[in-house]
């Protein structure tokens, strides 16, 4: 297996750090200090610019780190789901890697499964069980 890149390691570490309550409290304290210093700086434009610039920079950088972490998590979940489909007897292997299909093809699969769900609910309403493996 390939080791993670420096950016992936950095993104993971940053996401773990930023998701902790202590980090939230630290950010909250920065805001409180900024608010308390308002009267000292007479609520000047520079005083406002400091918080605006700081929060904009942090937000801008965090978007990329969060997206990296989210992409990695999503890809891992997809691989795990693909493995469950592959390893389950009777599962439709055509469902592997659905996220790579065109929207129209994905919508066709979704409609077929929506029809199966509707049929299963109707059967349940008539007292039948909704277990089994009907053909998609």
UniProtKB/TrEMBL annotation:
Protein name per Swiss-Prot or TrEMBL: Low affinity iron permease family protein
Alphabetical keyword list: Membrane, Transmembrane, Transmembrane helix
Transmembrane segment boundaries: 21-41, 47-66
InterPro entries in the record: Iron_permease_Fet4 (IPR007251)
GO biological process, one term: transmembrane transport
């Amino acid at each position: 297996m390939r080791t993670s890149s420096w950016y992936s390691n950095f993104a993971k570490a940053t996401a773990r750090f930023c998701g902790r309550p202590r980090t939230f409290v630290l950010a909250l304290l920065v805001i409180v200090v900024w608010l308390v210093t308002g009267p000292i700086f007479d609520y000047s434009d520079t005083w406002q610019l400091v918080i605006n610039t700081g929060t904009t920079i942090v937000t801008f950088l965090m978007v990329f780190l969060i997206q990296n972490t989210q992409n990695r998590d999503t890809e891992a979940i997809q691989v795990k789901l693909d493995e469950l489909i592959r390893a389950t007897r009777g599962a439709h292997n055509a469902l592997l890697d659905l996220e790579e299909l065109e929207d129209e093809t994905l919508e066709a699969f979704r409609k077929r499964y929506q029809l199966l769900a509707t049929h299963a609910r109707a059967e349940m309403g008539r007292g039948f069980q909704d277990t089994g493996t009907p053909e998609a």
